[in-house]
Amino acid sequence: MSLVTPSWHRIWLFPLLGAILQPAIGKPVPARRPVQLIRSNWTIAKPANLTAVAARPTPAPAVSPARVTFAEAGYADQSLQGLSSTATYYLRIPPTGTLQNGQLTLLLTPSQALLLNKSSVTIQVNGQPALSLNLNQLTPNSPISVPLSSASQQAGSPFVQVDVKTQLAISDDRCKDLENPALWLKVGQASSVTYQVAANAGKRLNLSNCLPTKTAIVYPATASPVDIRLVSALYSRLSELRPGTVGLFPASQAPDSLRNLIVVGELTNLPARYRSLLTRQPQPHQGLFVLKAATPQQPEVLFVTGSGQDGYAKTVDAVSNSTILASAFGDFLTINEARQEQLDRPQSDRLTLAQLGGQPTMMQGIGSLRQLYSFRLSDFSKQPNEIETHLEARYSGLQAGDRGYLNLYINDVLFSSTALDKSGLISVSPNVKRYLLKPFNTVQAEFRFFPGTNVCQNSFTSFFAQVDVQRSYVYSASAYSSETLSFLQYPGAFQSKPLAVVVSKSQLTQAVPGVCELVRQLNQRPAKTLTIPSVYASDSYKASTDENLLAILDRNDPLWARLSKAPVQFDRDFRLYGDDRSKPLFAVSDSVSCGVAQIFREGDQSVLLLSLNGTAAAGTLQNTARHLTDQLSNQASNVLIAAGPNRYVFNLTEDNASIDYYDRTDYARDWWGRYNLYILGGLLVLILLAFLYVRSKVNVSRALFEN
């Protein structure tokens, strides 16, 4: 629409239109000062022709997808071998994550000898086929991706199950390929599952499901016995729920990079840097768990605290009993009363494979079919001297020309081989001698099946086998008894009585990692209730023969006087010798940094004693404790010395001549024995020089006298 306006209207119309159009176009229309009166025409623009500059809302920051790798879930590179094979992976997805729009990424490396067009791989997610392809469809050095959805995870389960199944070939004749070692496909540990953060992540997170995501525990810079007991309980529980290491930090050393952690401490002793995040306060004599969700500026923190030492101590029993936190679906929990339930681990002379975690898996294929079962010597009520391995299984009966065997291995050592027949049933009970046993043992059942020639020419039928895990067992056929304890008997020898942990007062804070490792070893097998021993400072401990003892002492602790049966009196400097007494194997003095572990009996008590010398006390204690139950500990060793990356194990008795104690007088004697030849040689040289000097003076004097 056009509007013709007299020029004198410009005096008031320009400012008016400027005020009208300014909100629409974003710029003010200046009111021009009229210089002359002229006629002017203009067009009022339609609203559609106006360009409006509106303030756009700032978009919410995008949430990056997260991922969990196979390595983080505890899986190393795995090779699938043979004509057909299967590998199963379970990866934990945090409660705040969802697999909707997620992705499975697999790094597959096939053998270079395979016929790629006749070899295939099938990926199953949550038991359902997700992808099948021939290996010639793989791009070298490139991963394959499988899209995931919310249906990829079973409802109510924190895990996603991934199965990788292979059918491999090297030639057109599968019978020739049967035992070919070049049949393999490697699944890389860098494979991963990518997941999204759920829109309702805050509502999903609660006390019942937050523990597996925690990566570190922060405790007060000056730890108390209750702090040690609580941290060791949490450490054992986290080690059971998640793979990998759990960080342990005193508050003064906790890095700022921690994003998912547990903070512990009595209410008045909580680390100051985290105290402001605590939004609830416990009532007097109450324990308290509070979960603080993460924000872009703050980490996710689980607070475990209490009012007073009695209220704070109640949280220990709440952690040791898994049902308490498992039934807490909110973000806080108050503990008015808690008690530690009785130990529910199987403690008997006979343990079924089902009790050891075995599953009735159906094994199917050609060649070698294997199943692993693991156990510890401490799982038995008494230390076994000989173990009977009873195994019952069903399998597909052999036809004419077929050959089959059941091989049993203990720690990769073959100890039984039995031929299969057409019956389809087998029951064997071979014994394992003690010299084949280690602190941690694996029994492997291997079915080997070789089809007859006629099967290869016509059809190729797969062999199957299934172990009856309820009727198969490992049995302590005879108990092992010895006058002296060895590391092989830890922690089994300490489970017959209540257990106490005694720590030198000067070492309470430094001892936290070491105690955590010892308590974790007591709770290796998952159980409803943890074994959490009482913790005392050495100056307040009252010795009792009704309990076994774990002690961490410094070299000046008065408690050494009560431990007269210790193989090494570490409060004194000493040297250890082998057959050659002129060369010590190891020497300990004030200048040597090391940790010493000893296991022995003091009357009716079983005692494990750790002591340290030098700097880096916390790390030294933890490393020493870790070495106690490794597979290198032999049956007879009762003294272990950890010095830096090196460790030494010895078998010492009270009257053993291999150990030599020495004091300041001995230092002087050693110094003289080491340098006496040099000193005597130097004295002889000085005497000779003095003689030559005196002789030269005498000759000079004689010459002067004669002249």
TrEMBL record:
Its main location: membrane. The keyword Ligase does not apply. InterPro entries: Cell_synthase_bac. Pfam families: BcsB (PF03170). GO terms for biological process: UDP-alpha-D-glucose metabolic process. It is found in: Cell membrane. GO terms for cellular component: plasma membrane. Keywords: Cell membrane, Membrane, Transmembrane, Transmembrane helix. It is a single-pass membrane protein. PANTHER family: CYCLIC DI-GMP-BINDING PROTEIN (PTHR39083:SF1). This is Cellulose synthase subunit. It comes from Spirosoma oryzae.
